[in-house]
């Protein structure tokens, strides 16, 4: 293992290499030139003096006035220096970089934030981000759904449902060709009539996308507040008995079951669970104990 002295030496070499590779914080503004020298003004010059100096130099070095290639390059530098010095914020940042050239990372970050951060509307960035996320989410949901459908189609239960549907459409006359296998075209036609409900991989819906949810967020929050207010008034203040829908919600929440899993339960099981009033802790504890005893008995 390397000694602490060797590690410090390597760290020093690494930091020195990074600093050598990074351009000085002043040069990111006007390359290797001084912005004030390019315009021929002092650092204490006011905005009027800077503007006059720029117009004077632009008349001399503008490509329309001077076709010399070197003059054209100089004009680009002059125009860049004027853009930096005419704005109070960027000028103050440049002056700070001159006084503190050792703060490379800080000066560089301020430069790029000033020149590129304000050019992009945050609302456009937000909209673009939501569109990208929604597109990826929608594509992922369709991929998961198609994969789940392909897996379901390989199960015997699906094949039996498909065969039953074929017999129903053909009036009970089964096709005996191809070892009793359904023709691919017929199979695709029949499969469109089967409504596949696959837990965990439902068919994608635009209403479930993050972008749509963000747009509808005010409506969703208002609806949620109204729901909680009605719940509090009905069951906390008026002490009314729970409706079957609300009792179902409490039961599902107590069990930690997903909404789609609860919907797929048969009505008799739902009624039994609701009648147990599992949102009451003692009833829930009793139900868990019964399930454990039932599980041990089956073993």
TrEMBL record:
CDD domains tied to this protein: DnaJ
Membrane-crossing segments per the record: 206-226
Membrane topology: Multi-pass membrane protein
J domain segment(s): 34-98
Keyword Signal in record: yes
GO CC term (a single one): endoplasmic reticulum membrane
Main location: endoplasmic reticulum
Listed GO biological process terms: protein folding
Annotated keywords: Chaperone, Endoplasmic reticulum, Glycoprotein, Membrane, Signal, Transmembrane, Transmembrane helix
Location(s), subcellular: Endoplasmic reticulum membrane
PROSITE patterns: DNAJ_1 (PS00636), DNAJ_2 (PS50076)
Residues annotated as signal peptide: 1-27
The UniProt record lists the keyword Glycoprotein: yes
Annotated function: May play a role in protein folding in the endoplasmic reticulum.
Full protein name: J domain-containing protein
Protein's organism: Beta vulgaris subsp. vulgaris
